[in-house]
Automatic annotation (TrEMBL):
Its EC number is 5.1.3.14. InterPro entries: UDP_GlcNAc_Epimerase_2_dom, WecB-like. Transmembrane segments: none annotated. Keywords: Isomerase. This is UDP-N-acetylglucosamine 2-epimerase (non-hydrolyzing). It comes from Planomonospora sphaerica. The keyword Isomerase applies. One of its GO terms (molecular function) is UDP-N-acetylglucosamine 2-epimerase activity.
């Protein structure tokens, strides 16, 4: 591994937060807030622009300024072209900015190439939300591969749960390089709800079902089948569905022909994070293939039907608040009817649990980086140890 450049004692730690998609902005916002509040850090945001409208919406609403925007998004971008534009732009950005640490988050292609660009430039990498695994290389696609590629390049693995830390140890990552922090998404969810600025997108007092769908491996026929199941669900006399549509044309092509114009189905543009959090807080049931939503719903005690065949977030299923129902229309509709008709089954799932953290994950990330990069005794707070997450 090339030599890394540690900041001189007394210098501020130049931390480059690399992000490009909606969930990365949401999950790195608390890290940016914590670094901005610390005299030890000089944070900068390198935006790849892997997403456009959905990213800009979050950056503006969460007041995150980027120092660079690589503007890589293309309509219907293919993974190879996206990866090529990202590695080229990020390589130059890291070379020009010379940060002391590059922080990447999660499993996107922005995160994978951000780590690779930093590795090539000899800058140490911190990975927020490290260690999640489904064990199936092609699912989710390409995120499981992205996460596995990132791991060997990382100096600090910030694992959200004990389970994700165990995954990393099983792959040979030294225990001392791993810290269990909780997930920063919970920090942001609690922060946003506390401000109380969001508005729910539900319009009636029917049973409120919130749906999000976007995964590449679900696009096409699978997503079309799920749409038909949602149409059938909306046929119930007691249900209202809110579905914020992802900007991806492939998602819209699968959903709109089936769902557009159906009564009691509200197809809305992507909600800003304040409104999404309020909508989640107001709902009765969540159907989703999203990673982040699987983490947020348990905190609010909202039962989740996970519309996927695998999950790298088994903690919510283990806690009893999520069910991995797969993508077969009959399974989706069957599970939804059961929860809406069987009060006891619903109540068993509608229990608020916190398997993904206590809202202080970013503080732990920033403390650890301060300790290791600026020297012992210079942490932003008490230098607390690992978070024990049940
Ligand atoms: C990406 C991530 C996925 C993450 C998801 C969060 C990869 C390979 N995929 O998936 O891990 O879960 O973001 O939402 O990193 N588009 C717009 N405007 C936008 C955003 C997207 O028009 O603001 C359209 C473009 O046509 C773009 C397409 O959506 O080509 C797909 O975007 P892309 O980032 O490649 O994949 P996602 O499915 O959004
Ligand atoms: N989200 C949002 N507005 C929406 C839909 C989702 O703010 O209309 C938030 C949601 O709260 C979660 C994140 O976006 O924090 C999840 O993003 P997405 O599902 O696109 O990606 P994933 O988490 O699957 O990578």
């Amino acid at each position: 591994m090339p030599a890394t450049h540690l900041p001189r004692r007394g210098d501020r730690i130049r931390a480059a937060l690399v992000l490009g998609t909606r969930p990365e902005a949401i999950k790195l916002a608390p890290v940016l807030r914590a670094m901005s509040a610390s005299p030890l850090f000089e944070p900068m945001v390198i935006s790849t622009g892997q997403h456009r409208e959905m990213l800009d919406q979050m950056l503006q609403r969460l007041r995150m300024d980027s120092s660079r925007d690589l503007a890589v998004m293309r309509d219907r971008q293919r993974l190879s072209g996206l990866t090529a534009r990202l590695i080229s732009g990020l390589g130059e950005a890291v070379r020009d900015d010379r940060p002391d640490v590059v922080v990447v988050q999660g499993d996107t292609t922005t995160a994978m190439t951000g780590a690779l660009a930093a590795f090539y430039e000899g800058v140490p990498v911190a990975h927020v939300e490290a260690g999640l695994r489904t064990g199936v290389i092609g699912n989710p696609f390409p995120e499981e591969l992205n996460r596995r590629l990132v791991a060997p390049m990382v100096r600090w693995h910030f694992a959200p749960t004990e389970g994700s830390a165990a995954n990393l140890r099983a792959e040979g990552v030294p225990a001392g390089d791993i810290q269990v922090t909780g997930n920063t998404v919970i920090d942001n969810l609690l922060w946003v709800l506390e401000r109380g600025e969001g508005r729910s997108a539900f319009a009636t007092s029917r049973r409120r079902v919130l749906v999000t769908l976007h995964r590449r491996e679900n696009q096409g026929g699978t997503m079309h089948g799920i749409a038909e199941a949602l149409g059938e669900l909306a046929g119930r006399p007691d249900v209202e569905i809110v579905l914020p549509l992802h900007k991806s044309p492939a998602v819209r092509e699968a959903l709109l022909p089936v769902l557009d114009g159906l009564p009691h189905v509200r197809l809305v543009e992507p909600l800003d994070y304040f409104d999404f959090a309020a909508t989640l807080a107001a709902c009765d049931l969540v159907l989703t293939d999203s990673g982040g939503v699987q983490e947020e719903a348990p905190t609010l005690g909202k039962p989740v039907l996970v519309l996927r065949t695998t999950t790298e977030r088994p903690e919510a299923v283990d806690a009893g608040v999520a069910l991995l129902v797969g993508t077969e229309p009959a399974d989706v509709i069957g599970a939804a009817h059961r929860l809406l008709d069987d009060r006891a089954a619903y109540e068993r799932m509608a229990t608020a649990v916190n398997p993904f953290g206590d809202g202080r994950a970013a503080e732990r990330v920033v403390n650890r980086l301060a300790l290791d990069l600026a020297g012992a005794g210079r942490s932003t707070e008490s230098g607390e140890g690992d978070l024990a997450v049940a």
